[in-house]
Amino acid sequence: NSNSNSNKRVLPNSLSSLNFKYMETDELREAFRRYDQNSDGWIDAKEAVQLVKDADHSNSSIDRKNCAELKVSAEEIIRSMDRNNDKKICWEEFREAVEHAATPVSSRVYPISGTMLINFTGQGVMVPVLPFLARAAGLSTSELGMVTASSALARIVSNVPAALAAEEFGRRPMLIVGPMLGAMGMLGLALAPSDSHAFFSLCAANTVCGFGSAITMAGCGLYLTDISTPLNRARTMAPLQFAGLLGFMVGPPIGGFIADSYGLQYPFYITSGALMLTAASAMAFLPETKRKLGTSKSQTGSDEVKEGKSEGLMSAARQWREMLKNPDIQGISSVSYVTGLLQGAYAVTTVIYASETLMMSTGEVGMMFTAAVIGMAAVTKPATDFSDWFHNKGHCRSTLIIPGLGLAALATGMRGLEMFPTVLPFTALFMMSHLANACLITPNVTPFLVDATTESQRAQALAMRNMCQDLGVLSGAISLGAVSQAIGVPESIVCSAGLQALVMILFAMKTSSGRQRKRADKMDSENKST
Questions:
Q1: Of 223, 247, 251, which Cα lies nearest the Cα of 237?
Q2: CA separation (Å) from 74 to 51, 301, 384, 480?
Q3: Alpha carbon of 510 to those of 21, 153, 254, 395: distances in Å?
Q4: What is the pLDDT of residues 171-183, one digit of tens each?
């Protein structure tokens, strides 16, 4: 009815195959101009016939429609987006209808979030237990660092092949095979001997865990990218972040409790079973989301589609070279690296300091991680909502990442300087660094990366992000483990804070042109609107 049309412009489901809601604003404007065949600024029913043809062509049903049916379908499309009942749609009506369709988050995030919740809970169980298991087997701090690094090294080796496999075979197989490998690795950790072979056994088992993790995250990252739009990118990634936080919230205390009550091997048995459940869940509940490259743009005749199709044939190495010429990619890669570095350093810095200097038990270390994760979980939704709102207002997400890096570095440095060498303030500073990460860094890293790349580049862009993070884990575990053993754990924590501060400066420099470009685009858009 007229009241409905006057208040709400709706993108018809019949046009979903054209993927308008996945387009950036400039791409969408180009699509509108393409269908505005006489360039008068309006799409009428006659011009909308081409919309119907293109949409039906995607569904292979064009041969079943005659001219009369095409005309009726075109008129229905116009009515659905026509606000003032003038039987034609302008750019604003078209854009707002698409934005209305693109804003809600797809319900498909929930089954993958459930799958990943089991995966992350299993990983969370490991956090407080693996260092104690390694120390009980007689491993030194540097050997513990190498055990931790073995998983990161496996991910580094397998990130690119996993991304290529996800592009070739789809996302769903990755989310089945990855957890199964992880389950095998966890079982290997549980069965590792406590003799002279302990170091090699733990390294081998954790390596298998790394292969499984790389495959799982390749499928997961691309799955969520497939179903996200420019207007809901951070919120689409939020359930994954929340699943990770919830998993790491309940995992450490569960792992610590089981280890204290039954033995250090039992948490790994449970984790192995949980990962097998993850594989079964993915097999039962997750539909495939892979779509043909460039579908959304090929319908509009955009020049970028041709580039996208040819770019899809490039080798992974060539795509990496192209992406690394982009200063935004260079900057966000450094952020991913330092994030991994801090993760890799936890076992050889934070956990060792808490257990051997502050005399915290396995369960207490687990509760410290849980306290931090509870805080992170509480801010996840408002942080991701704000990230999308901030981006949709024409601002660059890098403006949020920079202060987050600074606050996290400050909190980490204060821990290392032993300004408050007791359990409660140490835990509070640990929480502060995690909250800075959850509020300002994590909600923006992947959306920033996806916004900076084309559709054809995104599989390898996500692989690059994972690679940089895993390189950070590898270097953090080995180098800061060596620093801890050579000059002390507090000094190692200070080193990690200094590296984070340096990355903040590098990221600000690399992304300055992007922020300026974003401001210019916003001004240009405002001028066009007026």
A1: 223
A2: 8, 20, 37, 64
A3: 30, 27, 42, 16
A4: 899 999 999 999 9
